[in-house]
Structure formats: C-alpha cells, structure tokens
Amino acid sequence: MARASNYRARPEAAGWQSRLAAAQLVWAAMAKGEDLESAMGSSPAYRSLEGADRGFARAIASAALRAVGRIDWALGGMVQRPLADIEPPVLALLRAGAAQLWLMKVAEHAAVSATVEAAAHWDVARRGGGLINAVLRRAARESGAFESSPAEAVWPDWLAAKLRSGLGAERAGAMALLQLEEPAIDITLRDAGDAAGWSDRLGGALLPNGSIRLLDGAGLTELPGYAEGEWWLQDVAASLPVALLGEVAGLAIADLCAAPGGKAMQIAARGARLSAVEMSAPRLERLRENAARTRLSMDLIQADARTWRPQALLDAVLLDAPCSALGVIRRHPEGVWRRDPKDLARYPMIQRALIDAAAAMLRQGGTLIYSVCTPSPEEGREVVEAAISGGAWRRRPVVAGEARGFDHSLTPDGDLLTAPAAIASDAAQIRCDVIYMARLERT
Ligand SMILES: C[S@@+](CC[C@H](N)C(=O)[O-])C[C@H]1O[C@@H](n2cnc3c(N)ncnc32)[C@H](O)[C@@H]1O
After folding, report:
1. Of the residues 149, 164, 199, the one at which a domain ends
2. Ligand 1 atom closest to Cα of 287?
3. Mutate which of 233, 278, 285, 307 to test ligand 1's pocket (most atoms within 8 Å of Cβ)?
4. Are residues 229 and 280 in the same domain?
5. In the prediction, which pLDDT does 28 show?
6. Least C-beta-crowded within 10 Å: which of 137, 209, 385, 415?
C-alpha cells in the first residue's frame, strides 16, 4: 500500500502548470464526459499555457487518455482502496503522473514532484498530495507495472469482447496497442497523377494505394497545396471504398451519407456526376466548404437518404453508413468510457433501411459500395448478408490487387476489413482505421 506520511510539497518543482492543465483535461474527459478537444477549449489552466508548455500538457493528457484503462489496471495494484473511491481530481493527477512515468518516460523527480505540486495548486485535489506522492513514487519504482497490464484493458470489457468478436484475438490485440499511438496523418490527392511529386514536396511517405502519410501533423493548413485544394485529410483505410468503384468517369453516382466529404471528393475528382446527399445541415455546410476549397463539382442535397430518390436510376451508390464507429475509437479514445453498449443496437436497422433505399436508386447491374467504420459483424457482414438474402443484391467480391496494399484485409467472402495486423509482412504494417466494406451489384 502506498503511504502518504513522507510527502512534502516542493514549491520549487518546475512545470507544475503543465501537469495541472493535463490533469484537468483528464478529469474533464473522465469525470465530466467531455471530449479532449472541447476540454482544451474550456479549461482555463490549459488555455493559460503557451507554446511548449501547452504542447506538453496536451501530450500528457492524450497519453493518459489513450491508455487510461491500462493505467488504472496497473494503479489498481498500488492503491488499497478501489480507484472509484478516490476523488476524481486526485485520480486525474495520478493518471497524468503515471502516463508521464510509464508512457512518456519522464524522469521520476520531474514527473512526481511537479504532479504533486500541481495538486497543491488545485483546490479540489489539495488534500490528495500525500497519496499522489506515495503512489507515483511506487509507480516509478515499479516501471514494469504498465507493461504487464493486458493490452485490451485500454477498453471497457464489453468493447474488448466486441472487437475480439469482429477482428479475432490477434488483430484486436494489435488494435489495442495501436491505440497508444497518435494516429498518423494521411492525405488523399485530388489528382493522383503526381503522387510521388507531392509526397516529396510534403516530406511524406507514399502508400501503396496512392495516399500520402505525413510524418508530422503540425501546421497542416500551411503546407503546399492545402489552400489550393490539391489534397484533403483522409485515413488510408477510409479512401479504399471509393477505390472499389473502379473507373467512374461520366457515371451517375450518389454518395448517400456524404459529409464531411472525403469520399465524395474522391468520386468527384475522378470525373463522376455526383449527388452528395447528407441529412445534417451543419455537416452539409462542412462538405460545401470542402468542395469549394478543392474546386470539385457535385450536387449538394440536404435530405434523408432513406426517402430521397434521384431523378433517373444511377450507375453506382456509395453508402458510408452511420455506425457505431468502433473502428476509429483511437481518434477519441476517451469517448468509449461513457458509451452505453445498448446504444449500438439501433445501427443495423438504419443500415438496412439505407441499403433498401439504395436498391430503389440503382439501375440493374449498378454497384453499391457499403462501408462502415466498425468491425462489428452486426453492422457489416450480417447487414450485407441480410440484404443479399432479400434477393435485390449479389456480392461482387473484391479481388487481390484492387485495394493496393490491403490484400491481407480481404475476407473469405470477398469483402474488405482493414485492421492493424500483428502479422510481420510489409503490407500488413500499414497502421490504419478499421473499416469494413463490401461491393454489391443490383440484381
Ligand atoms: C460516416 S459519416 C460519412 C463520412 C463521409 N462519407 C466521408 O467520407 O467524409 C455518416 C454521415 O451520414 C449522415 N447521415 C446519417 N443518417 C443519414 C440519412 N438517413 N440520410 C443522409 N445522411 C445521413 C451523418 O450525418 C454523417 O454525416
């Protein structure tokens, strides 16, 4: 048991302001249910910081929130009472301190004394200084405690079970490890012709499918080509559904769930006549801005795709359906702790209704690409199989080489399920979001 008796605050400890801001962000996310972005906007302690101090506070909070389940698992063995009985601000300081020690490898003397000092400057945590000092000293000594926590403890139990059922144990384990890293920044080019040139100009790495992975996410909007609309942000996996459409120049296509427009811009950039349908007005506005920046032409339609119908039958439909988004949780890892698994049940119904609507829009032989950013079979394979068994669709299996760099993500049925792979082959090392996609043909 950690003991509080030998604690004494050191007023000269440097950098307590960053630790205080970081802990307040962690507290806002975990105790108040805010996401990290909005917590950064509302925390006075964070906003009072500048430059490197602000960056450091954000890095601590982000590391703590990415790993909070594992941090708690390891801290649980160092505190005698349940963590739930610790005052939330004190627990936030412990989590922020542990993240410095275990994940950021900050030296013990700096991490511990500055975090203890932060407690002394935070009214609601002041009485926890002794506990924080004792537990963090022990955490520094037992530096292997985090490594010995199970990788999947980064998620609540229900989520770990769900991801294992969708991905299998090995890929779920790889996904859990990937959550500890900040996601890479990938971009999609408007004109794929000069991918090597753009990758040189931007100092990025060209991926096999033509996306470019930037080495650094700083100052994105200042980079060459952004203002001119030559490229947009899009995870490499999110760019694959449009690749499965093949040649689209001149075809009549609808994107039924279009905003903010990553995929709509890909389709328009390849010369299709595109109707971009989106139900939410503010999100349609974001799509409008994106289309304007990239100078891409498309019809923007605010409508519920379940009832909207085109004037003439279409050649293809992209349905990037609303879903549980469990495959992209690494982008907002703090959010999973406040999710109720019961909420997930509504998605398959909406997804099936949208597929039925797509059937009424397509000519015979027309193509539907269905995608969701989750590995849950209930929202992916099972929805697709129910649609096929209804008689309006047949599967047009994806074949090796179509989604370059992702052959390892082909399923036995000919769908694609991208996933961080633990398999050591070059192609399998593309770290990406988890996206399921299937290609169907209107019978
Ligand atoms: C996964 S996001 C789409 C992302 C987009 N395809 C992209 O690549 O940028 C799903 C979108 O569908 C919209 N949506 C949800 N239900 C809809 C419906 N019934 N009709 C039209 N849009 C809908 C949501 O507002 C959301 O913007």
Report:
1. 149
2. 9
3. 278
4. no
5. 97
6. 385
Verify that 194 and 334 share a domain, yes or no. Answer: no
Are residues 144 and 290 both part of a single domain? no
Reduced to 3 states, what is the DSSP secondary structure of residue 203? coil
Whether residue 70 contacts residue 155, with contact meaning beta carbons closer than 8 Å, is answered with: no
CA distance 299 to 252: 11
Indicate whether 9 belongs to any domain. no
Q: Decide if pLDDT at 428 tops 80.
A: no
In a domain, 31, yes or no: yes
Query: Based on the domain organization, do 196 and 280 belong to the same domain?
Result: no
Any ligand 1 atom below 6 A from CB of 79: no
What residues are labeled active site?
A: 373
Which protein residue's CA is at the shortest distance from atom 1 of ligand 1? 322
Residue 200 phi, psi dihedral angles, 5° rounding = -65, -50
Q: Give 283 Cα–ligand 1 centroid separation in angstroms.
A: 9
∠ CA 149-335-256, nearest 5°, is 130
How do residues 26-65 score in pLDDT, each as one tens digit?
Answer: 999 999 999 999 999 988 899 999 999 999 999 999 999 9
338 lies in the same domain as 225: no
- The response to whether residue 320 sits with its C-beta less than 6 Å from ligand 1 reads yes
Using an 8 Å Cβ cutoff, are 278 and 284 in contact?
A: yes
Per-residue pLDDT of 215-267, as tens digits, reads 877 789 999 999 999 999 999 999 999 999 999 999 999 999 999 999 999 99
Q: Is 322 in the pocket of ligand 1 (CB under 6 A)?
A: yes
Which atom in ligand 1 lies closest to the alpha carbon of residue 256? Answer: 21
